[in-house]
Specification:
Layout: E1 4-10, E2 13-19, H1 25-32, E3 51-54, E4 57-60, E5 73-75, H2 77-80, H3 88-95, H4 105-118, H5 124-130, H6 142-151
Parallel strand pairs: 1-5
Antiparallel strand pairs: 1-2, 3-4, 3-5
The structure holds FE2/S2 (inorganic) cluster (FES) (2 copies).
């Protein structure tokens, strides 16, 4: 199948990539760029594990063709912070025990980051509502909500 050249800014770096017309953004980020924080959960838009930011807004990368992201800016959990220099949300998730198996965590972080960019002081209800598209099979959500509340200064 013919490949198309696309350019993306991923976690602040310009990238030129060759993708097939049916390549999903999720697979391109994982397979071509090694960004394993982008998780393949359900593949049908139900779990939120594949959530990334596209031009600052959350998208489900399992539902998006890579060619549609041409020219746009993508941020994954790897772009939020680094070991030794974690993003406040990453730190808070660790401190609040909001990570168990960790599979949902990158997607949760991206959604939480998007929420706080839109609304720096969300209520607990607003946090729960915003994160409802991100499923966690381990934590029961209480610790995740507390972790986000702590960053918003509302714990
Ligand atoms: S893998 Fe994309 S929503 Fe589940
Ligand atoms: S920590 Fe395991 S799915 Fe959320």
């Amino acid at each position: 199948m013919t490949k198309n050249r696309i350019s993306l800014t991923v976690n602040g770096k310009e990238r030129e990539l060759y993708v097939r017309p049916n390549d999903l953004l999720l697979n391109v980020l994982r397979d071509q760029l090694g960004l394993m924080g982008v998780k393949y959960g359900c593949g049908i838009g139900e779990c939120g594990a594949c959530t990334v930011l596209l031009n600052g807004r959350t998208v489900l990368s399992c539902l998006m063709l890579a060619v549609s992201a041409d020219g746009q800016e993508v941020v994954t959990a790897e772009g939020l912070g680094k070991p030794g220099n974690l993003h406040p949300l990453q730190k808070s998730f660790v401190e609040h025990g909001a990570v168990q198996c960790g599979f949902c965590t990158p997607g949760m972080l991206m959604s939480a980051a998007s929420l706080l960019a839109e609304n720096a002081q969300p209520t607990e209800e607003e946090i729960r509502e915003y994160l409802r598209g991100n499923l966690c099979r381990c934590t029961g959500y209480a610790a995740i909500v507390k972790a986000v509340q702590a960053v918003a200064g509302k714990e």
